[in-house]
C-alpha cells in the first residue's frame, strides 16, 4: 500500500499533523459503520476494508519513523534495511540511556520487599526518588535530541525535490529514520522504569522492557 496515495497527500518527509488528520477524517467519514449500516453486506465489507486502509495509512504517515521508512521503501522498491548501527552523533546519549537503565534495574532488583523494616522502606523510597530524578534528566536529553531530529526533518523536507534530488536524500532519510527509531526505544525504556519506580513505592511491580 502506498499510504501517501491512499490519503491523497504528496510523498515527502514532513507532513502537517492537523492537515493529515483532516484529510483522514474527510476520506473516512463516508465509510464509517454508522454511514454504511444500511448497505448490502458486500458494500459494508468493502467500506470496512477501505476504512481500515485509511486508518493504517493515517497511523503510518503520522509517525515520523514509519513515514521515512515508507519513503525509503517507495524510493528503493524494497523494505528498509534492519540496521542496528547507532546514528551519528548519538553515542554518548546511547551510552547514558543504557547505563542509567541498567543501574535502575539493579536498584529495582535489590530493593527490599514489603515486609522490610520501616527504616529500610524509607531509605528505599528516597533512593527511588533520586533514580526518578536521574531518569527524568536523561529523558530531558532524549527529548532535546527529538527536537533536533524534528529540525533535521524539516531541513530534509525543504530540500525535497524530484527525481535525482530525492535519490540523493535517501541515505540522510535512512539515518534520520534510524534516529527516530532509537528515540522511540529510549522513550519506552525510560517510561517503563519510571513506572516501575512509581509502583515500587506502593509495593507493586512491573517488568521494564529491555531492548
Question: What does this protein look like?
Answer:
Helix 6 runs antiparallel to helix 7 and helix 7 packs antiparallel against helix 9 (170-201). The longest helix has 41 residues, at 118-158. The protein is mainly alpha-helical and 211 residues long. The mean pLDDT is 88. It has 9 helices and no strands. It has helices at 3-7, 17-28, 33-36, 41-61, 64-76, 91-110, 118-158, 164-168, 170-201. It folds into 2 domains: 3-62, Helix Hairpins (Orthogonal Bundle), CATH 1.10.287; 91-201. The protein starts with a helix and ends in a 10-residue tail after the last helix.
Could you give a short description of this structure?
With 211 residues, the protein is mainly α. It contains nine helices and no strands.
In whole angstroms, the N-to-C terminal distance is 29 Å
Strand percentage: under 5%
DSSP helix fraction: over 70%
Q: How would you spell out the order of helices and strands?
A: HHHHHHHHH
| Poorly predicted spans | none
Shape: flat
- Counted by DSSP, the helix tally is 9
- Indicate the mean pLDDT: 88
Keywords:
Helix Hairpins; 211 residues
List the helices and strands and how they pair.
Elements lengths: L2 H5 L9 H12 L4 H4 L4 H21 L2 H13 L14 H20 L7 H41 L5 H5 L1 H32 L10
Helix pairs in contact: 2-4, 5-9, 6-7, 6-9, 7-9
Amino acid at each position: 500500500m502506498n499510504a501517501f496515495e491512499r490519503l491523497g497527500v504528496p510523498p515527502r518527509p514532513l507532513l502537517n499533523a492537523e492537515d493529515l488528520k483532516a484529510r483522514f477524517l474527510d476520506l473516512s467519514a463516508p465509510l464509517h459503520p454508522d454511514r454504511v449500516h444500511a448497505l448490502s453486506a458486500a458494500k459494508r465489507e468493502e467500506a470496512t476494508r477501505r476504512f481500515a486502509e485509511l486508518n493504517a495509512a493515517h497511523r503510518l504517515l503520522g509517525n515520523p519513523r514509519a513515514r521515512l521508512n515508507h519513503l525509503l521503501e517507495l524510493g528503493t522498491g524494497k523494505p528498509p534495511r534492519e540496521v542496528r548501527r547507532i546514528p551519528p552523533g548519538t553515542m554518548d546519549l546511547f551510552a547514558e540511556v543504557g547505563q542509567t537503565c541498567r543501574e535502575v534495574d539493579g536498584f529495582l532488583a535489590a530493593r527490599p520487599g514489603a515486609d522490610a523494616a520501616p527504616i529500610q522502606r524509607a531509605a528505599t523510597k528516597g533512593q527511588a526518588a533520586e533514580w526518578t530524578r536521574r531518569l527524568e534528566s536523561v529523558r530531558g536529553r532524549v527529548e532535546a535530541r527529538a527536537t533536533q531530529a524534528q529540525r533535521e526533518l524539516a531541513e530534509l523536507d525543504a530540500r525535497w525535490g524530484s527525481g535525482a534530488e530525492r535519490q540523493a536524500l535517501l541515505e540522510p532519510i535512512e539515518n534520520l529514520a534510524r534516529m527516530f527509531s532509537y528515540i522511540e526505544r529510549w522513550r519506552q525504556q525510560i517510561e517503563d522504569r519510571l513506572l516501575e519506580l512509581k509502583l515500587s513505592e506502593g509495593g507493586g511491580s512491573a517488568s521494564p522492557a529491555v531492548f
